[in-house]
């Protein structure tokens, strides 16, 4: 769907992106992660044609975003971090204006408005002034404008920033719904949000891709040691006898359970992040000793993010070194300028 080839972006003597290549496939929700100033917004602005590149090529479904800008941009719906709204318009007036700006045929405008207001849930507020709407509804109006023109790709930059927990859940559900009909690229600092809705995750740091995989594979890959904690109604000798034949255990500790007389609180560690839950379950089943509680813990996405983005720049792999397992051939890099955020000039295609 999106192909980036040998993309380079320089700011003066600083090279923010160097010979970047990646592919994004259709029909998935992708999450962009990176620390503040990592260049996620700049990345999206390049992909949408709002920011030029020094070198390289970006194509959307075969159309060059720079050489065939009009055709390529029709395939993209973009919601910047600050939705490009006009507060003195009503949502309906604003969406009609955006539809015309995007070149939607006049006979199709009403049909598209009905669709985007319905899918974003703003039918009941479409005739109120935008400035009178809550932030959650303004964000929905921003999403509605991104959907006009029936784009194949939806790019969302921090769509839930500043929203309350209920609004975050509503927008998250909406993104999941959009992912059924569109390719969605989502930038967010809320890792639980990315974990919940994204099929694949890209983590960028120090201008380089440091991780690219599914959330589950990332957690497994970085797990290192998996810890299995359980409470079992058995004596210490029975615990040791049951587990002595279980392969993969690197550490075993057992103490009397403080809240359950006659039970043991057992902690088992395994190398390589292996999940021994099933083996342990059957080991105690064989001696007819019930497991009351069992929980497996591995490295969380938050821990993975911190580990990957707090490494020193010198630890980053060279540009020609493959980093982890790719998803659909994707590669992503940071487009930051040091610790500063590059101020982008709003483009008319943002509306």
Question: What does this entry look like structurally?
Answer:
The protein has 351 residues and is an alpha/beta fold. The protein folds into two domains: 194 residues, P-loop containing nucleotide triphosphate hydrolases (Rossmann fold, 3-Layer(aba) Sandwich), CATH 3.40.50; 75 residues, 2-Layer Sandwich (Alpha-Beta Plaits). The chain is 30% helix and 26% strand. It is built from eleven helices and 14 strands. The strands form three sheets. A six-stranded mixed sheet has the order 6-7-8-3-9-10, with helices on both faces. A hairpin with a 2-residue loop joins strand 9 and strand 10. Helix 3 packs across helix 4 and helix 4 packs across helix 5. The radius of gyration is 25 Å and the shape is elongated. The relative contact order is 0.18. The C terminus is likely disordered.
Helices and strands in order, then pairings?
Elements: E1 2-11, E2 14-24, E3 29-33, H1 40-47, E4 55-60, E5 63-64, H2 69-73, E6 76-79, H3 91-101, H4 106-120, H5 135-147, E7 153-157, H6 165-178, E8 183-187, H7 191-197, E9 200-205, E10 208-213, H8 215-221, E11 225-232, H9 236-243, E12 249-256, E13 264-271, H10 277-286, E14 291-297, H11 301-309
Parallel strand pairs: 3-8, 3-9, 6-7, 7-8
Antiparallel strand pairs: 1-2, 1-4, 4-5, 9-10, 11-13, 11-14, 12-13
Summary of the model, kept short:
With 351 residues, the chain is an alpha/beta fold. 30% of the residues lie in helices and 26% in strands.
């Amino acid at each position: 769907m999106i192909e980036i080839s040998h993309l380079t972006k320089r700011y003066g003597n600083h090279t923010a992106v160097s010979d970047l290549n990646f592919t994004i496939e259709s029909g998935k929700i992708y999450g962009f992660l990176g620390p503040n100033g990592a260049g996620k917004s700049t990345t999206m602005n390049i992909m949408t044609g709002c920011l030029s590149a020094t070198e390289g090529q970006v194509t959307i479904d075969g159309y060059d975003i720079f050489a065939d800008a009009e055709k390529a941009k029709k395939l993209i719906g973009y919601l910047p971090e600050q939705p490009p709204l006009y507060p003195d318009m009503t949502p309906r007036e604003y969406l009609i204006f955006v539809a015309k700006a995007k070149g939607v045929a006049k006979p199709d405008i009403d049909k598209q408005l009905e669709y985007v207001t319905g899918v974003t849930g703003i039918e009941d507020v479409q005739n109120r002034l935008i400035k009178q709407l809550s932030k959650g509804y303004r964000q929905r109006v921003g999403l509605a404008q991104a959907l006009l023109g029936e784009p194949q790709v939806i790019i969302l930059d921090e769509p839930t920033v500043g929203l309350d927990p209920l609004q975050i859940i509503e927008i998250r559900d909406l993104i999941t719904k959009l992912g059924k009909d569109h390719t969605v690229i989502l930038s967010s600092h809320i890792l639980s949000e990315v974990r919940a809705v994204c099929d694949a995750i890209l983590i960028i740091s120090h201008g380089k891709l440091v991780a690219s995989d599914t959330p589950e594979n990332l957690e497994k890959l970085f797990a290192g040691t998996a810890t299995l904690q359980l409470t079992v109604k058995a004596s210490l000798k029975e615990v040791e006898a049951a587990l002595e034949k279980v392969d993969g255990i690197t550490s075993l500790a057992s103490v009397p359970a403080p809240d359950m007389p006659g039970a043991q609180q057992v902690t088992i560690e395994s190398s390589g992040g292996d999940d021994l839950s099933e083996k342990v379950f059957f080991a105690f089943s064989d001696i007819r000793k019930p497991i009351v509680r069992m929980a497996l813990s591995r490295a969380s996405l938050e821990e993975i993010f911190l580990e990957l983005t707090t490494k020193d720049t010198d630890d980053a792999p060279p540009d020609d070194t493959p980093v982890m397992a790719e998803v659909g051939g994707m590669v992503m890099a940071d487009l930051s300028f040091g610790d500063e955020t590059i101020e982008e000039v709003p483009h008319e295609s943002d509306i």
